[in-house]
Design a protein that fits this description.
Blueprint (H helix, E strand, L loop, with lengths): L5 H16 L3 H18 L1 H15 L6 H46 L3 H6 L2 H9 L4 H7 L2 H21 L1 H48 L1 H6 L3 H53 L5 H42 L21 E11 L2 E11 L4 E6 L5 H9 L6 E6 L2 E2 L5 H5 L2 E4 L10 H6 L7 H10 L3 H4 L19 H15 L3 E5 L7 H15 L3 E5 L11 E6 L2 E6 L1 H7 L2 H10 L17
Parallel strand pairs: 3-8, 3-9, 6-7, 7-8
Antiparallel strand pairs: 1-2, 1-4, 4-5, 9-10
Helix pairs in contact: 1-12, 2-4, 2-8, 3-4, 3-12, 4-7, 6-9, 7-12, 8-9, 8-12, 9-11, 9-12, 11-12, 16-18, 20-21
């Protein structure tokens, strides 16, 4: 952690803790009061020891013994019961706060723009949500209220100690204050170590997540040893950090133990002199030494609890970094809430770059009226996917304007707008659930009839109904138990079920064989009726019926028109098409073939 501005960051962390604790403030205050009662009960043993030694042992007042023993048993039993109740309650409360914060962070991360995900690895985000947030449990479950109760006990004990012996108390307090000052600065040094540990842990977790997710690529290129080396390097960096923090904690424990030893020796020396000179009786000396433990306890606890709290604050620092990221719809310009979408998409002199100085789109201008099909054609890196990204609102144009129904997309609330989008991306993604759950993902409230109709159009029924569990079949992580074509059919069914006004097909049929593609194209043709559709396809035979084809090169539209007009121009589109088909006979479709393709 950057220690140059500790107070503002501490205030923000404290504010985060306060916002989470506020709904639980009443039971936590009650818990603190119970801890105070428990601490009062703990005074029974040292105070009764003075009466036991002076009155019962020295003055032989045996009648007081049952009262002393009864008071000790009653006080310790009450204290033990309170401790039992609080241990259970505070542990559950700590876990509840972790769950609430984890949920809050996950919801916030889900509302962040795509640009945030472009800059952060998936595994690192998982670590932020699952590991860093866990530190909230330490603030409650690790004994924070116990620590506060200990401070209260120390104050009471200090008052009694001053009454017993001003000299011994004053010298002890001076030594303990010096130790407290040292520990305060020591924790200031260790806190950056814990913050760095969280960063390294997120980095190592991120790489491990990627490696396991791409295990087929790893094995395909026999890269197991390379991945093991990378993980080992990260694990050893984590070990070095942990070693430094352990050494720091051990040094603090050493200093604490040595100082407490000096205090004990000093009290023994002064106590012997005070008793020898009759300034202090033996019972009071025993009471003093026992109460001294209550005053020293918060300092002793600070090494263990302070380490946990320091680690907790370091984790919450990183959690705050995520929570302060601006949400997608938080821009002050996004004030327009579209109740309905007709589907008129227009680009006006749009420029865009992912990185400063590296423009990806240069002055794109085109119109896609409602119900039309616009196809995007071009070589890899020409800007096709970037155009789709801008239409979806994943990124904002750096210059010019993208409009929806004549409204600037940068002013539209994206949540409602995206309800009108149906997207089938080139990289098909399925969740580790059933076929039914994956299709219903776009429209959870759909009826069974609507689900089955979408699956019929996308030809999901052809393979789903052949499985023993049919639509309840588990597809595995990322749909690993299905073929590429089956995964894409489910993705298409998901888009069909969404019943969108704007449909985006990014290589939607790239994993299908020709026969399956022809079957699905008829369903897609029905789906596209009355909807504004954007198609990216390397198989140019699939876009011959598009209302307009835009040929992109290096972020510019170099050609536009229909299949027939572009083919006759014998330009870039002609080159693309003839390389795939080889002969001009493919210009015109055979009778009836138009029903099979877009």
């Amino acid at each position: 952690m950057n220690s140059s501005h500790p107070k503002p960051r501490l205030n923000k962390v404290t504010g985060l803790i306060s916002s989470l604790v506020r709904p639980h403030r009443f039971p936590l205050v009650v818990s603190l009061l119970l801890i105070i009662v428990e601490r009062f009960c703990s005074f029974a043993v040292p105070i009764s020891s003075r009466y036991l030694i002076n009155d019962v042992m020295y003055q032989h007042q045996a009648k007081d013994l049952p009262i002393i023993i009864g008071a000790v048993i009653l006080a310790t039993s009450l204290g033990a019961l309170i401790t039992y109740v609080l241990d259970r309650y505070l542990a559950v409360t700590g876990q509840r706060l972790v769950t609430e914060l984890r949920t809050q962070v996950q919801e916030h991360v889900g509302r962040l723009p795509i640009s945030f995900y472009d800059k952060n690895r998936t595994g690192a985000l998982v670590a932020r949500i699952m590991t860093d947030v866990e530190s909230m449990r330490n603030l409650i479950g690790a004994g924070l209220l116990d620590f506060l109760g200990g401070i209260f006990t120390a104050v009471i004990a200090l008052g009694i100690l001053l009454r017993i012996s001003l000299l011994m108390t004053a010298l002890t307090v001076c030594i303990i204050l010096a130790l407290g000052w040292f520990l305060k600065h020591a924790f200031g040094i260790t806190r950056p170590l814990f913050r760095e540990r969280s960063r390294i842990n997120a980095e190592v977790t991120g790489r491990l997540t990627e490696s396991l997710g791409g295990i087929r690529v790893v094995k395909g290129y026999h890269a197991e040893a390379s991945e093991a080396r990378i993980f080992s390097e990260g694990a050893h960096r984590l070990l070095e950090n942990i070693t430094l923090s352990i050494n720091a904690q051990a040094f603090m424990s050493l200093c604490k133990t040595m100082v407490l030893g000096v205090v004990a020796a000093l009290i023994m020396y002064l106590g012997a002199k005070e008793v020898g000179s009759n300034h202090l009786d033996v019972g009071s000396y025993v009471e003093f030494t026992m109460l001294l433990a209550f005053m020293v306890a918060p300092i002793v606890m600070s090494v263990n609890i302070g380490t946990q709290l320091t680690e907790a604050f370091a984790g919450l620092d990183r959690t705050l970094e995520v929570l302060k990221e601006a949400e997608e719809d938080s821009e002050p310009t996004r004030t327009h809430l579209m109740e309905s979408v007709i589907g008129h998409i227009a680009f006006r002199d749009v420029t865009f770059s992912y990185l400063p100085g590296k423009t990806v789109l240069h002055g794109l201008t085109f119109d896609s009226p409602p119900g039309t099909v616009t196809a995007l054609v071009g070589s890899s890196g020409s800007g096709k996917s970037t155009v789709i990204s801008l239409i979806c609102g994943f990124h904002n144009a750096n210059g010019g304007q993208v409009s929806v129904d004549n409204v600037d997309l940068s002013t539209i609330r994206l949540g409602r707008f995206r309800e009108q989008l149906g997207v089938v991306l080139q990289e098909t993604f399925l969740f580790d659930g059933t076929i039914r759950e994956n299709v219903l993902f776009s429209r959870p409230g759909a009826t069974t009839a609507q689900l089955l109709e979408a699956c019929r159009i996308a030809r999901v029924d052809e393979f789903a109904e052949s499985f023993p569990d049919q639509y309840e079949t588990i597809v595995g992580e990322r749909g690993v138990k299905l073929s590429g074509g089956q995964r894409q059919r489910i993705s298409i069914a998901r888009a069909i079920l969404a019943d969108p006004r704007i449909l985006i097909l990014d290589e939607a049929t790239s994993s299908l064989d020709s026969e399956s593609e022809a079957l699905i194209q008829s369903g897609l043709k029905h789906l596209m009726q009355g909807r504004t559709t954007f198609v990216i396809a390397h198989r140019l035979s699939t876009i011959r019926r598009a209302d307009q084809i835009l040929v992109l090169e290096k972020g510019r539209i170099v050609e536009r028109g229909t299949h027939e007009s572009l083919y006759r121009e014998e330009g870039r589109y002609y080159d693309f098409y003839t390389r795939q088909h080889g002969v001009e006979a493919n210009l015109f479709l055979a009778p009836g073939e138009g029903d099979k393709i877009m």
